[in-house]
Write a structure and sequence with these properties.
By secondary structure, the protein is an alpha+beta fold. The protein is built from five helices and eight strands. The strands form three sheets. It has a four-stranded mixed sheet, covered by helices on one side. It has a two-stranded antiparallel ribbon with strand order 1-4.
Length: 162
């Protein structure tokens, strides 16, 4: 939880963009359905690539190991950002793709009292399992809709009820 302005050191894989785009499985890429041998092979290859990325290095565009890099990022508490930017607490869409800290960002925003109608949330690199994040968000009043690509979609309960 970010309580005051601070600087965090984030680890970047050697080729995160190439890595992430190479992880799609069974989505019109010729690997077949989830029960096919091709899909299982592609899924295992994806899991191996993710394990390398989480371990501090990744396979770059030419199949070579690329060491992780680090970058310092200044962070502010959500309430400070909201005050400076005059953010409303009730708004349409919250989209989070925070490369490994999305679960923390999502919790921080929801715990600060923000109530978006829709949440679009990428959970690919987070330490917290998606099932835990999903249960937490549902407990706060959002309904899980579906997964689109790497993103999970939630809608606020009761939006379309009379």
């Amino acid at each position: 939880r970010v309580l005051r302005k601070e600087t965090l050191r984030l680890k970047l894989g050697g080729d995160v963009v190439q890595m992430e785009s190479a992880l799609e499985v069974g989505d019109g890429d010729g690997t077949g359905g989830k029960d096919s041998a091709n899909w299982k092979h592609a899924s295992n290859a994806r899991d191996a690539k993710l394990a390398k990325l989480r371990g501090g290095s990744s396979v770059g565009a030419f199949g070579k190991e690329t060491p992780a890099r680090y970058v310092d990022v200044d962070t502010l508490p959500i309430h400070e950002i909201a005050t400076k930017c005059h953010l409303p607490t009730d708004f349409g869409l919250l989209s989070i793709d925070a490369e490994g800290v999305g679960d923390k960002v999502l919790r921080e925003i929801l715990n600060a009292g923000f109530v978006p109608r829709w949440i679009l949330y990428e959970a690919m690199h987070n330490a917290e399992p998606f099932s835990v994040t999903k249960a937490y968000v549902e407990q706060l009043g959002w309904r899980y809709v579906r997964k689109i690509g790497w993103n999970h979609v939630f809608e606020r309960e009761g939006m379309f009820e009379a």
